[in-house]
Amino acid sequence: MGRGARPDRGECAAALSKPLRTEAEADREFEEAIRRYEGQRRGLGAELLAAVDEVLERIVHLPSAGVLPGPVTLTDAAQKGWITLPARHPPQGPPPRIPTAPWDELSRELDEDRSER
Fold first, then answer.
1. What is the C-alpha separation between 117 and 114, in angstroms, rounded?
2. Residue 34 within any structural domain of the chain
3. Could you read off the pLDDT of 10-58 as tens digits, one per residue?
4. Would you state the torsion angle of the CA atoms of residues 10, 14, 18, 22, taken in this order, to the nearest 10 degrees?
């Protein structure tokens, strides 16, 4: 690569950006969501539109965003830091038992419980 005029960052970003395509059905759903939000509170639809525009602008300028290198397992995603798995808590004590009692005892306790209400 020879030495010459270096392109500015805007030109580089434009060269790397993805074209944004949307489906007509998605556009209709989004317009409906904006109207629904606006109906809840004046200006809320505009806030939704601004937030979505901001995210779409990021997506357009990240050419490799959303492209996975192939099948990804949960383990792969966790190792790469894409997701955080919930903490594992080792079981403590014996496993819970299914309570069992003679019918007479259960019936008596049920009657007592009902009489207290």
1. 5
2. yes
3. 554 454 555 667 788 988 999 999 999 999 989 999 998 999 888 888 7
4. 90
Global pTM value:
0.41
Domain that holds residue 58: 23-62
DSSP 3-state percent helix, strand, coil across the chain (nearest 5): 50, 0, 50
Produce one character per residue of 68-85: b if its CB has 16 or more CB atoms within 10 Å, e if not: eeeeeeeeeeeeeeeeee
Is 84 within the bounds of a domain?
Answer: no
Residue 88 lies in a domain: no
Q: Which of 11, 18, 16, 12 is nearest to 60 (CA)?
A: 18
